[in-house]
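Side project, low priority. Logging it here so it doesn't get lost.
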Amino acid sequence: MNKLYTRLVFFLGLSVILLSGCSDVDSEITGLEYDRLFSPTDLTASIRNKTSVKLSWNPNNIADSYNIEITAEGADAPFTTKDVTNDDIPITISGLKGETTYTAKVKATSEKYTESKWSSVTFTTDAEQIFQKINSDELKATEVTLRWPAGEVATTITLTPGDITHTVTADEIAAGAAKISGLTSETEYTAKLLNGTRTRGTISFTTLIDLNGAIAVYPESDFEALIAAANDNDVFALFPGTYGTGNKFIINKSIALKAARPNNKPIINGLISIQAGNSLEVKEIVFDGTNTDGSQAFTFNTSTPNYGDLKIDGCEIKNYVKGLIYLNVATAVESVTVNNCIIHDITCSGGDFIDSRAGAPKAINVTNSTVYNSVASRDFIRVDDKSSIFAGVTPSINVDHCTLYGVSNSSSKRLLYVRFKGNTISFTNNIVAETRCIFSNQKNTAMPTFSKNNYSNAPGLFTGGSTSSLIFDDSASALDPGFSDAANGNFKISQEDIISKGIGDPRWLE
């Protein structure tokens, strides 16, 4: 009993001492005044415009200002900035070198307190881009003139494909221009301007059609008669002007229709009807559905044999009633590709945007394109289930780097109304804005591969935004892109995070 009493007294005494000690510590902490500023916290660096960096950190309300030092890897002298205030956070530092690793350090300063220790972050700039937009008059079938700011130093220009290397002369540096000859017509090149091993600019372009191998077509030509008499693999080079007055143009051979002058696109006012299993390539042409019979812009019209590829590249397509592409015959199509296009005012009254009812498209690719003022209350891509007829066909659908504004704007409409069994879907790097649509409410629609999408005012694409959808993309961001003038078809983006991640149709990121 005495031992128990002794232990109890000991623990009660210890508790009093501990409680008393804790009280003293609390008193000291609350009453303590530090004579040195804390280092900036949550310091981050993000690249802007290739060679600028945006630095951000948590403001310190008792700091008068901040000092910044940015040092390149291996360099001695840092780039310094002083007298940065809380109002300046975040701050963007420009004038850095491309393809260079830097360390940024920030410390807080004050007249009343000792300056803080440095906080630091490391980042690497992107390659510079000082190439200027190519003048359309300086782009030809076998040569191009590349320009950059006069006086900016470079040593070589390399072009691929072909592993072409051009040595930049002193005169070319002074002029900021170099003419590259010996190119191949209708070829997409990527040119790099280099100073030693450091990239100073990158630009892509496609050389013009070589008329020596194409059939020249002029607005005064009998265009319908020319394509009716075509042979397989004929290429028609259309010069600027308008072709047709709402006609239906019959494609009964595998041919290509291309602009002779892409900077001044020809206009085809009419419908395209593809017959008898042929392929069609159209490039850098304006398709206008004004005064047509109200059908889709492109239609596969006969059931046999199977079709090759439909390629639509660099086109503007507008003013069609029922939709863009229609496949309502029992046939397979090797591929449908829509790339680098501006598509608007496609009402989709009586049909869906890309609409396969009776056939089997093996592949559908919609890339680097913008669709607006279209598909207001229909489905964006529809592929009905004809898997029992087309054994072994497993349609693949790829939508990548597109800007879709206001499409399928109904809570009952779908971006992906895909019912053909065995399909695969990739939906990546897209902006979808101002729509109440969902992805799909069909059990046969495959779960897409999602990556780096942004949905602005499109709640049905996220979990909780719809009760009818079976597919959601919670990996996407929901930022306002800050479109320049969406009402008039200008979707230039101002939201920096979207720009830095390269989301949406690339034309609006520059």
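Brief comment: The helical segments are 2-31, 170-175, 223-228, 496-501.
Revisit when time allows.
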